[in-house]
Amino acid sequence: MKVEGLAADLRALLESNVGQNISLDTVIQSLGTRGFGVLLFLLSLPSALPVPAPGYSTPFGILIAWLAIQMMIGRQTPVLPQWALKRSFSYETATKMFGAGIKFLGKTESLVRPRISWIGSKVGKVLVSVLIIVMAGLMILPIPLTNTFPAMVIFMIGIGLTQRDGLVIILSAIAGWFAVAVYAAAIYAVYYLGTTSFDEIKEMIKFWN
User: Burial letters for 164-197: b for 16+ Cβ neighbours within 10 Å, e otherwise?
Assistant: First the structure.
């Protein structure tokens, strides 16, 4: 699925469900694919972009990690549990969330294209899967302001997988491991310096988000 086509499908989804709650299953069916890239894009979107969609980071982080495990073991078609497929967004939340996604895709569609195909190899998928699991774990951590950056890494990996753009995935991976270093430093500081350093740590994490 092309990035341009994904944005168009999101617009069509909103237009066909005006005023209604939109379930995750409806979103997936409307996009016409169950590929890993599209699902990673969708599940990271509420936390990745600056839209008010609280309460999704933990359950969607768990689902993202589950998808990454499926990628790692070589599944071709992702599977989501029924409870996840039934989870829905209000139309207002969906409009803000998908609207932000459409706007972002519109700005990046000319930059994303198929390249560096080795990233789709078995080894490449395993490396990407490990990174996604780590990023999903950071999304789930109960630390203030830790959701956005890891979710954005997953969001960009989802776009890269959808468009088979290895360069986007590699750049996302570099940013992701840098985020791991920042959060590891923050956790280390909390453990060794105590709660007196918490305000400074929040400011540091906020800066990188």
Answer: bbbebbbebbebbeebbebbeebeeeeeeeeeee
**Which token pair is 207?**
């800066």
Give the pLDDT confidence score for residue 130 in this predicted structure.
93
Q: Is residue 192 part of a domain?
A: no
* Domain ranges, residue 51: 3-172
Contact residues for 38 (Cβ-Cβ < 8 A; gap 6+): 1, 6, 28, 31, 158, 162
Mean per-residue pLDDT pooled into runs of 10, the chain (209 residues): 73 90 86 78 83 73 93 86 87 87 83 82 87 90 72 91 89 88 74 59 54
DSSP string, the chain: --HHHHHHHHHHHHHHTTTS-EEHHHHHHHHT---HHHHHHHHHHHHHSSS--TT-HHHHHHHHHHHHHHHHTT-SS----HHHHH-EE-HHHHHHHHHHHHHHHHHHTTT---B-GGGGSHHHHHHHHHHHHHHHHHHHS-STT-SHHHHHHHHHHHHHHHHTBHHHHHHHHHHHHHHHHHHHHHHHHHHHH-GGGHHHHHHHHHHH-
Question: Whole-model pTM?
Answer: 0.80
Total domains, the chain: 1
Give domain status of residue 99, yes or no. yes
Residue 160 lies in a domain: yes
Residue with tokens 């699902």: 39
Res 133: pLDDT = 95
